[in-house]
Design a protein that fits this description.
111 residues; mainly beta; Rieske Iron-sulfur Protein; six-stranded antiparallel beta sheet; three-stranded antiparallel beta sheet; 9 strands; 0% helix; 45% strand
Length: 111
């Protein structure tokens, strides 16, 4: 799950307009691949890694606020990261997202 905003380092990743409505983009940040989705005007960011088999989630379809793993069909909530169906049982990590100075930034926990 994501850390409280006071414990985050904000990493600039792209122009604010880089993720159009209904689409997603994947960014590599500090050695992690993070998928950012825009759904109904809100940006959501999750680690692009199925907790069941370690493959990218961003290759799968999105239904509402759920991304579906393309390999085995596990569903994850974009808002919370919770695994919603087997074969995944562990949540994916979520990240804070913000638009600041016309730039898209991701909040990563300070290390």
């Amino acid at each position: 799950m994501s850390a409280p905003e006071t414990l985050l380092s904000w990493i600039d990743v792209a122009p604010a307009t880089d993720v159009p409505e209904g689409e997603h983009r994947v960014y590599e940040v500090r050695g992690r691949f993070i998928a950012v989705y825009q759904v109904a005007g809100t940006l959501y960011a999750i680690e692009d890694l199925c907790t069941h088999d370690g493959n990218p989630l961003s290759d799968g379809p999105v239904e509402g606020l759920e991304v579906i793993c393309p390999r085995h069909g596990a569903r994850f909530c974009l808002r919370t990261g919770v695994a919603l169906s087997p074969p995944a049982y562990e949540p994916v990590t979520t990240f804070a997202v913000r638009i600041h100075n016309q730039r898209l930034s991701l909040g990563l926990a300070n290390e």
